[in-house]
Amino acid sequence: MFSFTFAPPPAVPEAETLRAEVRAFLAAELADRPAIKRAESWSGFDAAFSRKVGQRGWIGMTFPREYGGHGRSALERYVVLEEMLAAGAPVVGHWIADRQSGPSILRYGTEAQKAFFLPRIARGECFFCIGMSEPDSGSDLASVRTRAVPADGGYVVNGTKLWTSQAHESHYMILFCRTGGSPDDRQGGTSQFLVDLTLPGITIRPIHALTGEHHFNEVIFQDVLLPESALLGTLGQGWQQVTGELAYERSGPERFLSSFTLLVELVHALGPAPSERAAIALGRLGAHLVTLRRLSRSVAGMLQAGENPALQAALVKDLGALVEQEIPDIARSLIATDPPTPEIERFLAVLNYTTLHAPSFSLRGGTREILRGIIARGLGLR
Amino acid sequence: MNDASDTLLLETAERLFRDTVSPPVLAAAERGEFPHAAWAALAQAGLHRALVPEGAGGFGVPVIEALGLLRVAGRHALPLPLAETMLAGWLLSGAGLAVPDGPLSVAASPTLTLRRQGDRWNLHGAAPAVAWGRDAASLAVLADVDGQAFVALLPSGAWTAAPGQNIAREPRDAIGIDTLLPAGAVAASGIGPVQLWAAGAAMRCLMIAGALERITAMTVQYAQDRVQFGRPIGRFQAVQHNLAILASQTAAAIAAGDIAAEAVADGIRLPAIAAAKARAGEAAGVGAGIAHQVHGALGFSYEHSLHFLTKRLWAWRDEYGGEAAWSLLLGQHLAAAGADRLWAEITAI
Ligand SMILES: Cc1cc2nc3c(=O)[nH]c(=O)nc-3n(C[C@H](O)[C@H](O)[C@H](O)COP(=O)(O)OP(=O)(O)OC[C@H]3O[C@@H](n4cnc5c(N)ncnc54)[C@H](O)[C@@H]3O)c2cc1C
């Protein structure tokens, strides 16, 4: 029989002091940030902001001090993340490096890689993107075709990565690609590389989202020579490494706070004494967020304890995306937008922004169907 | 299904309920037979006094652990007033009154009036849907005296109970009271009616979490056993995804139960209990629906025991306030705090 372990998140009294510090920092830094920019949530980019966050010691918080980290707990880091998201801070520059690339380097990297990358990441100066998806490999990640072939002095890479968020603003990519393996062993024979995006042979082309915005890209590798030292971890162990990375990717507060700015604007538009119908709808969303936050913090605690909560992470992401996607639908049903006062205009702008982005919430980081498959496997059904 | 955090007390409860609560016992309870043997075993283990402080005759079990018993009870559809006995004990000990033995229940209603009459008290009025009103050995009644809450302890025979039941056929009786009580049976309450209601709601959250855990286990098992089209139905992706939803609702209810228990331990934090009951209630409905869908017609039969759990989920989500009532409270709280404090309020829960 399966068991559900969602251990209560450990108490971290020191995190509350930290929370106050982060709130004060954000109140000052973001005082002039308009709601429509806050709504970008963790896709907002601002390199200068990322550096300031690094200076405060809030990137790479859990990395060891010897690598420029701060030796803090996963739950302290969690406090910083959720405060940043709730405030609508432009975090995407350092987000991926802090969340998964850095921890992967810490776990699998050589001494030289750790010494080179981690301090830069922690200073908020070294941004990473994720090179997993390809034109013909989305959910079926193991089918990737981009290939690195051993050559004099390293590896030569050919292939195309797609939907690579922030590649155009990033310094490095963790590339997941084929290095061997037979067709019947799809997962074997894959590896990960730390790719300097300025290398010759790499072309980054914008892909515009349905909003017209440029967040993601196509990244083409044409006879790109990677040095020996670019290999991350063990040759042929790419699949194990990449699936470990996904537990970090799936359980954080960004999995239920993507629409939070809209909720703030909704409360604003409703005023202090909303109708009973509106209060019920708002309270229900509040109940969902409170519960998700508890589950998500519980997963952070499990990660900290060295467990592998892949099932729990999938549960959090699946539940989180549902709520993130419900928020715009519920918000629009509660506010009469006529007459369009300035307040209502502001609400509408954030509503429209969130409505347009909502479809991606159950795609990026593993689709709803893939997550449910993972949960079903966790239940012993597959 | 034991959680890593399950302690000896909870393991004892798990074993005890497994041994004493069977489908025939549940069916008999639906016919109105009080399961005396199960109660005797529970009382012998002292589970009913888990929430009573050490000074008042309890064992000093931490509040969160004591409430955890109700999640275990939920897993077994325990047909006994464990929550009510715990609630009554909490209310009585909070007022400095002795906690009697036997199954207890609680009544609180604005129509109950408590008045001094010489050196005694007259308690008069009615209360609807009192759980196990007909079976309780004593009743703890919360009543208002000039704007202050008082607790009265009623011995058996001091009230009448007109049998009623909830959707799960658990006894929910209309009681009538017109009695004179000695001075020592009445005391000022440390707990007001709203707090009592919230504590009851918190208890239902834990019971819902337990019942959902159990139906998830049962439903996953059934999907592995039942074969159609030459394979277990759990091999079909549509069924797998429904089970994934059931599991995630169960996870949410477990989290809600934990939030509720902590909120009681901290002295009844209302917004937290509101969030927990609203969320657990929603999970109950979604989860019960999926469990039935996967069980097919068999789960719709009386003979299969799924309904003992799903009917309780439908009952418990409404008792002590349904999703609408608690969402309203939380929503009004958040709106009054305002947009700029929304996040601070959420993290404070
Ligand atoms: C905003 C955004 C940012 C992204 N950023 C990055 C990034 O930085 N780096 C990166 O590598 N990728 C990124 N992605 C890509 C993302 O990882 C993929 O979109 C995702 O893995 C799904 O792949 P796909 O889009 O090719 O859809 P497909 O895999 O083709 O799926 C299409 C549909 O079929 C369903 N489906 C597929 N297989 C199954 C199955 N076995 N059972 C049931 N249903 C199935 C899917 O659930 C989905 O509904 C991003 C995507 C978005 C939307």
TrEMBL record, chain A:
Per UniProt, residues of the Acyl-CoA oxidase/dehydrogenase middle domain are: 129-224
Q: Check the record and name the PANTHER family matching this protein.
A: ACYL-COA DEHYDROGENASE (PTHR43292), ACYL-COA DEHYDROGENASE FADE34 (PTHR43292:SF4)
Kindly state which keywords UniProt assigns to this record, in alphabetical order: Oxidoreductase
Top-rank lineage group of the source organism? Bacteria
User: Does the keyword section mention Lyase?
Assistant: no
Q: Could you tell me which InterPro entries the record lists for this protein?
A: Acyl-CoA_DH_CS, Acyl-CoA_Oxase/DH_mid-dom, Acyl-CoA_Oxase/DH_mid-dom_sf, AcylCoA_DH/ox_N, AcylCoA_DH/ox_N_sf, AcylCoA_DH/oxidase_NM_dom_sf, Mycobact_Acyl-CoA_DH
User: What are this entry's molecular-function GO terms?
Assistant: acyl-CoA dehydrogenase activity; flavin adenine dinucleotide binding
Is Oxidoreductase a UniProt keyword of this protein?
yes
Source species of the chain:
Limobrevibacterium gyesilva
Q: What is this protein called?
A: Acyl-CoA dehydrogenase family protein
The record's Gene Ontology cellular component field reads: plasma membrane
The Acyl-CoA dehydrogenase/oxidase N-terminal domain extends over 13-125
Q: Which PROSITE patterns match?
A: ACYL_COA_DH_1 (PS00072)
Automatic annotation (TrEMBL), chain B:
User: What InterPro entries does UniProt report for this protein, alphabetically?
Assistant: AcylCo_DH-like_C, AcylCo_DH/oxidase_C, AcylCoA_DH/ox_N, AcylCoA_DH/ox_N_sf, AcylCoA_DH/oxidase_NM_dom_sf
Cite the Acyl-CoA dehydrogenase/oxidase N-terminal domain residue spans from the record: 7-92
- The residues covered by the Acyl-CoA dehydrogenase/oxidase C-terminal domain are 201-307
Give the molecular function GO annotations. Answer: acyl-CoA dehydrogenase activity; flavin adenine dinucleotide binding
Pfam families given in the database record: Acyl-CoA_dh_1, Acyl-CoA_dh_N
Q: Which Gene3D superfamilies does this one have?
A: Acyl-CoA dehydrogenase/oxidase, N-terminal domain (1.10.540.10), Butyryl-CoA Dehydrogenase, subunit A, domain 3 (1.20.140.10)
Instruction: Give the protein's cofactors.
Output: FAD
Q: Which region is the signal sequence?
A: none
Write out the entry's keywords from A to Z. FAD, Flavoprotein, Oxidoreductase
Which SUPFAM superfamilies does this UniProt record tie to the protein?
A: Acyl-CoA dehydrogenase C-terminal domain-like, Acyl-CoA dehydrogenase NM domain-like
In the record, the note on similarity to other proteins reads: Belongs to the acyl-CoA dehydrogenase family.
Give the protein's recorded name. Answer: Acyl-CoA dehydrogenase
Source organism: Limobrevibacterium gyesilva
